[in-house]
Amino acid sequence: MGEGSADGPVLIASNRGPVSFGLGDDGRLSARRGAGGLVSGLSSVTDHTSETLWVCAALSDADRAAVREAPDGRLDSDGTPGGSGVHMLDIPPAVFQRAYNAVANSTLWFVHHMLYDTPNQPHFGMAFDREWDSFRGYNRAFAEALAQDAGPAGQAGQAGQAGQAGRPARALIQDYHLTLAPRMLADLRPDVRIAHFSHTPWAPPAYYRMLPDPVAREVLDGVLGADHAGFLCQRWADAFLDCCEAVLGPVGARVDRVRQRVSYRGHVTGVGVHPLGVDAAELTARAAEPDVQARVASLAEATGDRKLIVRIDRTELSKNIVRGLAAYRELLIAYPQWRERVVHVAFAYPSRHDLPEYREYTARVQRLAREISEEFGTADWDPLILQVDDDYARSLAAYRLADVLLVNPIRDGMNLVAKEGPILSDRACALVLSREAGAAAELSADALMINPFDVSGTAQALHEALLMPDSERTRRARSLARAASAVPPATWFADQLAALDRLGG
Ligand code: F6P
What are 454-476's pLDDT values in tens digits? Predict the structure, then answer.
């Protein structure tokens, strides 16, 4: 990436960073790659450059132990202490827990994905004040680190292996965890160019306004501290603009729909759509490695010549795994011709187990899977393979063998599974896709689109996908793979830097 060397330092900020640590029985720390879509997208950019500094939080006790051994929290992206690529922040555990679990994941995530069971939740009482204050503290820790890492104003930065005199630093702040940080950083360092990117959907005003009014204003004001606010599809960008109009309009914000920008408190924020896709060459090369080949062989042996309906998700409420399993059950009831001829492979790796809702959801998924196996299984046919542990190579193997890929989230920022599957499937898989996923904006022409709440409609789409003639599947899968790889992470990243440069004049 040339941008870093021509301009000032490029700083990335996200809750989860490119490296995390585990503590072995012998008390030794071991480094591994950070997990999740955001991290893998950004890592594929930063792995090829030494010109960025990634600011992230220590997420566990092992991370904290590693940070305390590293000078100023500096690490290499492989975890070596004293490197120059990563600045890991040791935020006090209680502050971190309240910011990450109570506010980011139990409040903002629920709002943007519209997950609340509204007769009972949300409940913004006195406890929330303390949680919100921790969220502010957590965002402030990032803003202060970024202000420091940007280096002296108008000069090469400390991060800045990359810096050049007179060029401003650029900070790319990621996701709902860090919605307050852009404003805080802008207040500390008006010279730094700031982008914020939302990897989630954005809620429509009627839902967003469940947040207490001051909080609703503070979140929008936080993002509007950035010079550029990026979203994964136009629908989420529009919802953000709608919220700015509804919540901040009465206190002076002006929303310009034509130029896609918001003026507020004397500052203009441009709004842009950057639909993150997949680096097809890199993914295909990874899926050809021996660990994946071995798993392809064992999955093929376990399933024989049956057709495979594959799904791969975090065990996440918004992924709608329970309705997906219910749809598979309806498929076997409504279209009994598929019995013994199909296997549903559902890989649902663990996520956010600190939250009771996620533990209960995982248990429901497992219960329903057991019921389906008991109801339909025969001596030599297990209709369902559910795995709830994380094995990336096994997920890639499942993509390769998929005849049908089921992606049915209630609501999703993008959903990279919908993009990875068609690129990797050796069998030119048919894609059954929720209209509520951001990926629908790019893939709907060649996917079988569903309403994720309509279980019978999903079963019908699975039936159609299984029946789709080979020639049509091949044509559609090629087109899906093309769309999925149109904006690989490096382009996505460069587009945001370019948007910042355009705004800077
Ligand atoms: O969708 C937003 C996101 O940050 C993804 O990039 C990532 O896969 C997921 O949420 C991570 O969640 P967590 O860090 O809580 O596991």
Answer: 999 999 999 999 999 999 999 99
Pocket test for ligand 1, best of 40, 199, 202, 312 (most atoms within 8 A of CB): 199
Q: Are 423 and 449 in contact (CB under 8 A)?
A: no
State in Å: Cα 315 to ligand 1 middle. Answer: 12
Place of tokens 């949680």: 131
The pLDDT value recorded for residue 274 is 97
Number of Cβ within a 10 Å radius of residue 280? 19
- Asked whether the beta carbons of 134 and 101 are under 8 A apart, the reply is no
With beta carbons less than 8 A apart as the criterion, state whether 442 and 492 touch.
no
Percent of the chain at pLDDT > 90 equals 87
Residue nearest to atom 6 of ligand 1 (CA): 38
Given a contact cutoff of 8 angstroms between Cβ atoms, the answer to whether 100 and 134 are in contact is no
Partnered with residue 53 across adjacent β-strands are: 11
For 155-200, the pLDDT digits (tens) are: 544 443 334 456 789 999 999 999 999 999 999 999 999 999 999 9
Number of helices (H), then strands (E), in the chain:
20, 18
What are all long-range contacts of 151-157, with beta carbons under 8 Å and residues at least 24 apart? 151/8, 151/9, 153/189, 153/191, 154/191, 156/8, 156/9, 157/8, 157/9
Angle of the 181-188 helix axis to the 126-149 helix axis, nearest 10: 50
| Nearest CA among 388, 390, 386, 398 for reference residue 310 | 398
Residue 113, ligand 1, Cβ within 6 A: no
Q: Does the beta carbon of 352 sit less than 6 angstroms from any atom of ligand 1?
A: yes
Q: Cα(227) to centroid of ligand 1, in Å?
A: 24
